[in-house]
Specification:
286 residues; alpha+beta; four-stranded antiparallel sheet; 14 strands; 33% helix; binds flavin-adenine dinucleotide
Length: 286
């Protein structure tokens, strides 16, 4: 199908982009990689009057260390995250997650900010930013505010972003000391999106026991979530097989797993348990 008619603006600065969005709070929409928004427009699920293309704002694309944080600009592409030597060294969960997304074309155009802002229930980035307890920096005409990833994902395709706001940056505390990361995904055979995706971020003591755990789950429910009961069961443990097996039985606590034509609710719950166990084992083995 063909999208409804729309205007297009490609501002050179973030300030101009914020002003353009503010000029039409109901009708304007941010365009980043376009790999979720354009298909939605072609299906007429989204009918913006004005697209504000932020992909050309150079100052929004970066991966850098700043103090004890990793800072990632919103328009950094999946490919840039996948191929970052810095991230492979200091936060391997991010390149592992990026590598699991779509195909080469999708990874070349799609952005981390677009994926997080879209809050697709089967999107990969939400699981990773939850596991890493990321802070999301949002900017609008009233200035800037920071929201924890945990509070950002509100519901299906719905986030805490307010009309006119742009997700500017993702901030992650640099993993320090011993840590273990893994991303495990069961891709849908047709779309490649996550039927279940599990992001694991373990902080370890010198003896290999678990200081704390961050577990982000996508694909299972209407929005990505942190499996807090699993995190608590792992923290302070020796990460032995019995502890992990018992912990993962809690991965859907408080969650009503989605059922669809491909995977029933019970099957998704089963997959979530199996792949959370595998992801924790894989992280531990590295
Ligand atoms: C064939 C195909 C396969 C795919 N496979 C996968 C997959 O396996 N896993 C996966 O996770 N994703 C997958 N995707 C989606 C892809 O990762 C998208 O790139 C991503 O979901 C959206 O990012 P984008 O930069 O393209 O955003 P866009 O499509 O430009 O925007 C998406 C939404 O976010 C808003 N938005 C974008 N950036 C910002 C911002 N900085 N601040 C505020 N709002 C913003 C837009 O207004 C829009 O509502 C696939 C897409 C395709 C077409």
């Amino acid at each position: 199908m063909i999208p409804t008619p729309f205007d297009y603006q490609a501002p050179a600065t973030l300030e101009e982009a914020v002003a353009l969005l503010a000029s039409d709070l109901d009708g304007a929409k941010v365009l980043a990689g376009g790999h979720s928004l354009i298909p939605a427009m072609k299906l007429r699920l989204a009918q913006p009057q004005l697209l504000v293309d932020i992909a050309r704002i150079k100052s929004l694309s970066y991966i850098r260390e700043e103090g004890d944080e990793i800072r990632i600009g919103a328009t950094t592409t999946h490919y840039e995250l996948e191929s970052s030597d810095l991230l492979k060294r200091i936060c391997p969960l991010l390149p592992a997650c990026a590598a699991s997304i779509g195909d080469v074309q999708v990874r070349n155009k799609g952005t981390i900010g677009g994926s997080v802002a879209h809050s697709d229930p089967a999107g990969d980035w939400p699981a990773a930013v939850l596991a890493l307890d990321a802070d999301l920096v949002l900017v609008g005409t009233n200035g800037e505010r920071t929201v924890k990833a945990e509070n950002f994902f509100v519901h299906l395709l719905t986030t805490d972003l307010q009309p006119g706001e742009i997700l500017r940056e993702i901030r992650i505390k640099k993993p320090s000391g011993r840590f273990a990361h893994a991303y495990q995904k069961v891709p849908h055979p047709a779309s490649g999106f996550a039927v279940v995706g599990v992001a694991v971020n373990l902080a370890l003591n010198d003896d290999g026991s678990c200081k704390s755990a961050g577990i982000g789950i996508t694909g299972v429910a209407v929005k990505a979530y942190r499996a807090k009961a699993v995190e608590s069961a792992l923290a302070g443990s020796n990460l032995d097989d019995n502890t992990i097996a018992a912990a993962v039985t809690h991965v859907c606590d408080g969650i009503d797993p989605t059922g669809d034509l491909y995977a029933s609710s019970d099957y998704r719950r089963h997959l979530a348990q199996v792949h959370t166990r595998r992801a924790i084992q894989a992280a531990k083995a590295h």
